[in-house]
What we know:
Blueprint (H helix, E strand, L loop, with lengths): L13 E6 L6 H11 L4 E7 L10 H11 L6 E6 L3 H8 L3 E6 L2 H17 L4 E6 L9 H9 L10 H12 L2
This protein binds 4'-phosphopantetheine (PNS).
The site of 4'-phosphopantetheine (PNS) has 10 residues, from strand 1, helix 3 and helix 4.
Amino acid sequence: MSQFLDKTPHQNSVAVFPGSFDPVTVGHIDLIERSAAVFDEVIVAVACNQEKTPLFTVDERIDMIKNVFAQNPQVKIETFKGLLINYLVNRDAHVIIRGLRAVSDFEYEFQMALMNRKLAPGIETFFMTSSALYTYVSSRIVKELASLGGDVSDLVHPLVEKEIKIKYSCQ
Length: 171
Ligand code: PNS
């Protein structure tokens, strides 16, 4: 029996929702809230990826997500460096949640899920389809729109919109 299935009835179920979150969007928020309805605890794991040049620092991204979920004790926010699988093993977590918006997301996600399962067979990736309303929303599109003076109020939480405005007013 796999590690995931071998759980006692009183053990909390923990899911890790990893990503860049540069910045967190309404699509992410929807997936995190829906995950929290299924799992006892959802850890939003912000990747500290040196290769990318993000708009927000990891600390800024963490603070924004913390503020958005300040009223939800089920949602914890952390950061990780290196392999996601190592982070899950260290956290004794067995589930990765990833969102799928469109078929175009699938190839990369499928590859990553298979690689992660090869690295750690006891850890499963659960895919959630994004809500129909948010299939077109991505952090990249939010940044592009905001950088050109577009209105992103439908795409991000008001607290995040404020931070984006500050970022682009400084550039
Ligand atoms: O929000 P994103 O950019 O789609 O998130 C991608 C992320 C950070 C979840 C993914 O790149 C990741 O897990 N990076 C850590 C390195 C790793 O474990 N890669 C997969 C196996 S090679």
